[in-house]
């Protein structure tokens, strides 16, 4: 039935275009401008293959593949090409969990020790909701797992049990693949199947996502793209990982752009799940303090141009993905790429700007600096970074590797740039309980963007330096 409704809608648009001329011409003009931009951006980024879908005001403006799905066999990327979705799959894992909530098998307020009875006692306050919103405090397993080893569900769980908690449940947001690995296992346990099979039966099939599926190196899968990485300016194949790492709930799915356009219709209609479940999925997380954080269940829930914007990105094994819904403009953009260095988010932003220039991210510019003491402190921190003099005690809730790896990285950048000019405040915002400050910093003729965040007790929870 869904397909017949789409066909009728497209026919009506076509007839209207014949009668008036203007809507069809405008539609074609927009499609052509987006197409030209994507071609240029693919070339600029050096991405082997892309698939792009754009829906505006209920119309599919563009659905197209660009470049190569497989360089070795010279296979072009198309609308049926399957790309790994990476963390874009988290919204589907969250959907699988919400299906169990609706079926009465799971409650969002359940302690996860109900499903993981051998977990540490310190996990008792952690709920299913905390896992969905990345507010559990469970440390991210990324970088702490052997990518060449096969793990069972029990092996994954025991590995995560051994990771220290970074903070009490609900205190703050901290992106954790571990939490979504656990959600996948939870779904496997309560359904006595796999979360991928649940999605196949209850989401992909009814949604008309005809080729969406779990990753498998063993199966013969038509239209599967190859993933690539750039090493020393040369395109190489993606790194191999054990098969079990492509079964986990943090992002182990294949999609074509057609599949995700079908999902877009589900999201737009609030189908598959109840509307109450969708409200849960797309509401900002509430922290213990009462502050909110702009992440729901597998979705970022932000704003653009004063209107809601829901989005997520993904990266895994030589693939990158981005999906953004600009609700105020009835605009949805999907970009799938097969290069680890690709920036599908930049493609999304470029397309959004073409459709409506007001959706462009506003350029940073000076704003009144009402906290000169903060600016003075961050000027000192910048020079401490240049000198390699980070004190680990001044940081809070940063990743376990951050001080050891990020410190020398930023030290090298600053030493290559030379003396810094005065810091110019360009943005101040609050996310959860953290205060973020972004400055424009001149280094000779170049300007860099410098961002630092503070937790309420004054310790640093984020640090970044990038060319503006």
Automatic annotation (TrEMBL):
SUPFAM superfamilies: beta-lactamase/transpeptidase-like. It comes from the Bacteria. Residues 34-342 form the Beta-lactamase-related domain. Pfam families: Beta-lactamase. This is Beta-lactamase family protein. It comes from Corallococcus soli. The lineage of its organism: Bacteria, Pseudomonadati, Myxococcota, Myxococcia, Myxococcales.
């Amino acid at each position: 039935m869904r397909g017949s409704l789409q066909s009728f809608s497209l026919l009506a648009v076509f007839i209207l275009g014949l009668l008036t001329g203007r809507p069809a011409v405008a539609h074609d003009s927009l499609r052509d401008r987006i197409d030209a931009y994507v071609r240029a951006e693919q070339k600029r980024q050096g991405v082997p293959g892309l698939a792009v879908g754009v829906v505006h005001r209920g119309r599919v403006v563009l659905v197209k593949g660009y470049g190569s799905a497989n360089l070795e066999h010279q296979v072009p990327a198309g609308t049926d090409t399957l790309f790994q979705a990476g963390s874009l799959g988290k919204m589907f894992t969250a959907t699988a969990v919400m299906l169990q909530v609706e079926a009465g098998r799971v409650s969002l307020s359940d302690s996860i020790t109900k499903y993981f009875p051998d977990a540490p006692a310190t996990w008792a306050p952690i709920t299913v909701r905390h896992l969905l919103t990345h507010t559990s405090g469970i440390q991210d397993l990324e970088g702490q797992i052997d990518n060449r080893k096969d793990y069972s569900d029990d092996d994954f769980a025991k590995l995560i049990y051994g990771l220290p908690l970074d903070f009490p449940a609900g205190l703050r947001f901290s992106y954790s693949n571990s939490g979504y690995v656990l959600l996948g296992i939870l779904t496997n346990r309560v359904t006595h199947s796999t979360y991928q099979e649940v999605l196949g039966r209850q989401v992909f099939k009814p949604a008309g996502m005809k080729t969406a599926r779990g990753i498998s190196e063993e199966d013969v899968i038509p239209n599967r793209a190859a993933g690539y990485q750039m090493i020393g300016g040369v395109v190489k194949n993606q790194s191999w990982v054990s098969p079990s790492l492509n079964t986990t709930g943090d992002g182990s799915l294949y999609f074509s752009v057609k599949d995700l356009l079908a999902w877009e219709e589900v999201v737009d209609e609030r189908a598959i799940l109840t509307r109450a479940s969708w409200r849960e999925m797309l509401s900002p997380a509430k922290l213990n303090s009462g502050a909110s954080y702009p992440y729901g269940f597998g979705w970022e829930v932000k704003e653009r141009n004063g209107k809601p914007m829901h989005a997520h990105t993904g990266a895994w094994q030589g693939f990158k993905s981005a999906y953004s819904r600009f609700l105020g403009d009835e605009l949805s953009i999907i970009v799938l790429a097969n290069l680890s260095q690709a920036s599908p988010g930049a493609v999304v932003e470029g397309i959004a700007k073409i459709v409506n220039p007001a959706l462009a991210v506003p350029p940073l510019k000076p704003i009144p600096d009402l906290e000169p003491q903060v600016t003075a402190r961050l000027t000192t921190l910048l020079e401490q970074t240049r000198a390699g003099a980070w004190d680990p005690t001044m940081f809070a809730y940063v990743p376990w590797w951050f001080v050891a790896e990020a410190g020398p990285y930023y030290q090298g950048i600053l030493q290559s740039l030379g003396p810094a000019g005065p810091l110019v405040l360009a943005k101040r915002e609050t996310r959860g309980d953290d205060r973020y400050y972004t400055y424009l910093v001149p280094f000779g003729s170049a300007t860099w963007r410098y961002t630092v965040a503070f937790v309420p007790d004054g310790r640093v929870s984020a640090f970044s330096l990038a060319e503006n």
